[in-house]
């Protein structure tokens, strides 16, 4: 699994978020609430859906599956001046990311994340940076289909 590297320019997202942990995963509920309302968001940029995670600065240093983080279901926007009710804005700052392609059903995504955090990252010259992580679900994303693909973006910086 060969990654690519990209310096992301600042991006603005509008969506919904929940606080959750890996042991108390509310992803299904989040997306179930977001998807029926996504068309209310104006000035969207592209058709991709974004699943974002915002972790605190010590999350990966003191990993515990009970530790909470913010999980977002969102779309990228060019302007967020007319925000739908119960939606929020998330600004992702510029920075370096490593990108992996997860191929296969969404339910097998943990294998890709395990490879990134247990194999690739420890053997690289990088460490996780404290910026949002995200997955892009574009045209090739088909949820549980074996041919599904999504991009996994991990914020990094030199060790």
Would you kindly provide a written description of the structure presented here, covering whatever features stand out?
The chain is mainly beta and 159 residues long. It has one domain: Multidrug-efflux Transporter 1 Regulator Bmrr, Chain A (Alpha-Beta Barrel). The chain has helices at residues 27-34, 109-120, and strands at 4-8, 11-20, 49-54, 69-76, 88-92, 95-103, 126-128, 133-137, 149-158. Strands 1, 2, 3, 4, 5, 6, 7, 8 and 9 form a 9-stranded antiparallel beta sheet that branches. The relative contact order is 0.24.
Topology:
Layout: E1 4-8, E2 11-20, H1 27-34, E3 49-54, E4 69-76, E5 88-92, E6 95-103, H2 109-120, E7 126-128, E8 133-137, E9 149-158
Antiparallel strand pairs: 1-6, 2-4, 2-5, 3-4, 3-8, 6-9, 7-9, 8-9
Radius of gyration: 15 Å
N- and C-termini, Cα separation: 22 Å
Give the assembly state of these chains.
single chain
CATH topology: Multidrug-efflux Transporter 1 Regulator Bmrr, Chain A
Helical amount: 10-25%
As a percent range, the share of strand residues is 35-45%
CATH architecture: Alpha-Beta Barrel
The tally of structural domains comes to 1
Rounded mean pLDDT score: 95
Residue windows where pLDDT falls under 50 for at least 5 positions = none
CATH class: Alpha Beta
- Strand segment tally: 9
Shape: globular
* H and E order: EEHEEEEHEEE
Number of helices: 2
Structural class call reads mainly beta
CATH superfamily, called what? Regulatory factor, effector binding domain
Major sheet: 9 strands, antiparallel
């Amino acid at each position: 699994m060969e990654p690519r590297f990209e310096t992301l320019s600042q991006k603005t997202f509008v969506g919904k978020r929940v606080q959750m942990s890996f042991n108390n995963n509310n992803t299904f509920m989040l997306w179930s609430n977001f998807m029926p309302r996504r068309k209310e968001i104006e000035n969207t940029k592209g058709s991709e859906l974004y699943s974002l995670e915002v972790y605190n600065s010590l999350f990966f240093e003191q990993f515990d599956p009970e530790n909470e983080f913010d999980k977002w279901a969102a779309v990228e926007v060019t302007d967020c001046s007319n925000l739908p009710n119960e939606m929020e804005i998330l600004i992702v700052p510029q920075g370096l990311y490593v990108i992996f392609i997860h191929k296969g059903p969404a339910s097998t995504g943990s294998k890709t994340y395990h490879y990134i955090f247990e194999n690739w990252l420890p053997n690289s010259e990088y460490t996780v940076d404290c910026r949002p992580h995200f997955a892009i679900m574009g045209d090739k994303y088909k949820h549980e289909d074996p041919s599904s693909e999504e991009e996994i973006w991990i914020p990094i910086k030199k060790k």
